[in-house]
Amino acid sequence: MNYVPGTASLIDDIDKKHLVLLRDGRTLIGYLRSIDQFANLVFHQTVERIHVGKKFGDIPRGIFIVRGENVVLLGEMDVDKPCDTILQQVSIEEILEEQRLQQQAKQETEKVKMQVLKDRGLSIPKADNLDEY
Amino acid sequence: MFRYSSLDDDCTLEEEDDGLIEEEDEIDQFNDDTFGAGAIGGSSMKSVQCCFLQENSHFFELLRNFLEVELFELEVNKYLILNLRRQPYLGDIIYVDERSGGSDLAESLARFILDADPAIAGVGAAERPAPSPGSAGSVLSALRGLDQSREGSLMSIIKEAGLPKRPPQGRADEGHDLSERAPPPRSSSPVIGSPPVRAVPIGTPPKHPMSLNHQIHHPTAVHVRAPIQHRYPAPFPERLSPNTLLNIANSPLCRGPFPPRVGPVLSQLQRAQLLNSQHIFMSASLQVAGFPRGGPGPPLLAGGGFRPFFGGPPPPHGHRMGPPPPHGPHNHTPPIRHNTTHLHPQHRRLLTQRMQSRGGTGLDRRSRDPYSNLMSQKEKEWVTKIQMMQLQSTDPYLDDYYYQNYYEKMEKRQERERDSSSKKEHATKLITPQVAKVEHTYRPVQFAGSLGKLTVSSVNNPRKMIDAVVTTRSDDEKREKQVWNKRRQILYTVEKMYSLLLEVQDFEKRFVQTPEEEREALLEQHKTNTEQLCSSLQEKEWEDRVSDEQCVMIMSVRKGKRLIARLLPFLPASQGAAVVMVIARNLPALAKKDKQDQVLCCLVEPVSAVIQSLSSSALTDLLQELQGGDGQLAGVLQNKVNHQQTVAGWLISQPGRTCVRSPAKEESTELVFSVTRELLGVPSSSLSPPLFTPPNLLSLFSRYVDRQRLELLQDKLQ
Question: Which regions are flagged for Basic and acidic residues bias (chain B) (predicted)?
Fold first, then answer.
């Protein structure tokens, strides 16, 4: 509400720590430094946070420029709030390993499902090719 | 991007021409000479020929690096004199020749950069490559101009060079500019050619954010020009980023002291950061070369890049390159007056309350963050301006329907509450600024006496690719298409009627909104709308009667049924009645068609409303219509489809009403008898429960039928 009262704008969020969820599922945390009219975001000291189950790991990424159309949601993070979640931070290697296992498990179930459907003569198109159409 | 080749001092333009057709391997060698091992060791760099194409941003980065690293070596050993020449048609070429005879390094650097940077080279220098004699002349004049400013201070040079956006002066001497040839006389279309090319890519925030509104709302006519490659100035940030500063500090600049006269410029460098001034920036970038160690040696962090510091306090980056920013922590304390005139007063009040409650939290953190305010005030305003422009609307009632309606309702409520007590004037009226609707009719450009169409297309006048001509179809095709055409015709009619209907429905709301003067016009429009609606239902030949066929056709479409349902309340009584008659007459057919759509029930309410206002004779007519065919009524009653419940209920209610109203009529008795007969005839299981039963229906029936039948009827009706 800084410059344009009565509207929503990202201007007030500049230089604050944010969490952004992208369309490909990544979660980035960083200081929002700059925006533009398309909501392209410039993040500083960005960290990619991977969540697997109750564990999470942070991968430092540096400066990120996110194209506005790829943002699902964006929210300010309160640095003062005490962190009392049940999430447990682990090292990068561990979280990547966990993620790989998770992906593997998902693929297995997916394969089984497809096989079952095939046996019955049905087919469901894969969602990833469809995008939003 | 860069091609270097060593040249002798007295190379001529022609030789350079040939020399520029270089092979790739030469490039690497010279690259190496300049940036690689060859360069750093000794300053054997006699001359550098930079041929850079349109990528000035890269050029500038490289140039800066180049200057930082190289020229200090040179400075130690020899003085560089930069001789600049411009060569058109091959991009921009700058020669840096070594010449003895000592000149001020700073000044020559200034000249180098100033002339190289197209943004600043506004002093007589062409912004577009002109034919060579012209350009040479202009460059020389530029040099001459610069020569005259021998004050030894860089600021003066920059002032001389002028602002980046200054329109090119000294065009008078360039009579040969071929690009300014006027096009042949036009016969139509005021807007032609590309929109005015600013020397900046479209996405960049402007340095002078004044002309945005103007440019967008008043497109001016522009001459058609041959497409010219404009060089874009480097889209620089208006301050040196902390990283750059770190690089500067750690670079080999820290070697030798500079001539003392460059001393006071350091403060300008800092001021450049702080005040984001573009003029001073140029001097700052030049002073990158001349960075003295006069200032306090800042113990900057070596890992200058990024380091995630979440959860902890900001790193001990307290030292800055000089005096702390003058306007540090006080950004938020002065209350900012926003433009809230377009908001409703209540809304405004809410907002101010909210803002006050939020207060000034988070100020201190921002002042400590060294990377804060990377986005300058101007840039923020620029983004805000764009966003506000997108909000301008030509019809706020249409674009911002919910906001307008909400506050309207609130106003009404407040008025009601405050009715008797005080004579409060309409302080809480919402006034929304409206942008005038500008009709841009585009007519394709045609030049007088030209063959064919123009090929130059732009945003304002897109090229006409296809000439769409209406052709009549052949006969055999006709028959096939006739069916389709009919349906399309119906759909088209329905759409047209719908838009009319929507306008009619919104009339009341609009009426309240418009000022006094325009109300007349609105009324007129409303009248015509309703008339049009009525006429669309009527027969072609007889102006007064409602067309059966037309109605049925409309009702055959799902949307048409909804349309009629919404339209009925707005029709005059006679027409409404006529429409209901039509429906009644064609009910079975309609019911059949409605099997898939199941929208017939939406008609119940308006139809019943109409029926209530019908006269008794009309009612009897209606009932007769209903009973038209043999067993028509029974068929309708029997229909088990879901929606038929409502229809059946409707049917039953009708005779009830009729009888209630005019019990003495004879025809009604007949009808009642027939109705009861039908009702009895239909097995009760198939009779779908009616929507509503008039309360005294049974009592009515009891008057006419005997006990047995009455009981049966009773069962059936429940």
Answer: 171-180
Q: Which residue of A has its CA nearest to B362?
A: A16
Q: Tell me, yes or no, whether B596 and B626 share the same domain.
A: no
**The domain containing residue A51 runs over which residues?**
5-118
Distance from CA of A105 to the nearest CA of B (A): 32
Tell me which residue range forms the domain holding B548: 482-613
Q: Which residues of B touch A58 (CB under 8 A)?
A: 308
Q: Are B268 and B291 in contact (CB under 8 A)?
A: no
φ, ψ of residue B583 to 5 degrees: the values are: -60, -45
Q: What is the dihedral of CA B332, B337, B343, B344, to 10 degrees?
A: 100
Q: Point out the residue among A6, A34, A37 whose CB comes nearest to the CB of B351.
A: A6
For B195, list phi and psi in degrees, rounded to 5. Answer: -60, 155
Is residue B604, in this structure, part of any structural domain at all? yes
- Contact state of A44 with B362 under an 8 Å Cβ cutoff: no
Q: Is residue B656 part of a domain?
A: yes
Indicate the angle between helix axes B132-148 and B105-116, nearest 10 degrees. 140
Neighbours of B520 (CB within 10 A): 10
Whether A66 and A40 have beta carbons less than 8 Å apart is answered as yes
Query: Rounded distance, CA A3 to CA B116, Å?
Result: 38
Which residue in B83, B92, B88, B151 sits closest to B117, CA to CA?
Answer: B92
- For the record, the structure tokens of B355 come out as 């803002």
User: Using an 8 Å Cβ cutoff, are B76 and B257 in contact?
Assistant: no
Q: Are residues B550 and B650 in the same domain?
A: no
Q: Which tokens belong to A114?
A: 């497809």
Give the pLDDT score at A65: 96
Q: Supply A88's token pair.
A: 């447990």
Average pLDDT for B568-579 = 81
A11 touches chain B (CB under 8 A): yes
B478-485 contacts at long range (C-beta below 8 A, 24 or more positions apart): none
More reliable by pLDDT, B465 or B205: B465
**B609 part of contact set with chain A, CB < 8 Å:** no
Residues in chain A closer than 8 A to B363 (CB atoms): none
Query: Does B589 have pLDDT greater than 80?
Result: no
Tally DSSP H helices, then E strands, for chain A. 2, 6
Beta strands A17-22 and A27-35 are antiparallel
Ramachandran quadrant class, B362 (left: phi over 0; alpha: psi -120 to 50; beta: rest): left
Which runs of E-coded beta strand occur in B451-515? none
Q: Do A3 and B343 touch (CB under 8 A)?
A: no
**Digit-coded pLDDT (tens) for B402-453:** 888 888 888 888 888 877 566 555 556 666 667 776 766 666 666 666 676 6
Higher pLDDT, B294 or B461: B461
Report the domain count for chain B. Answer: 2
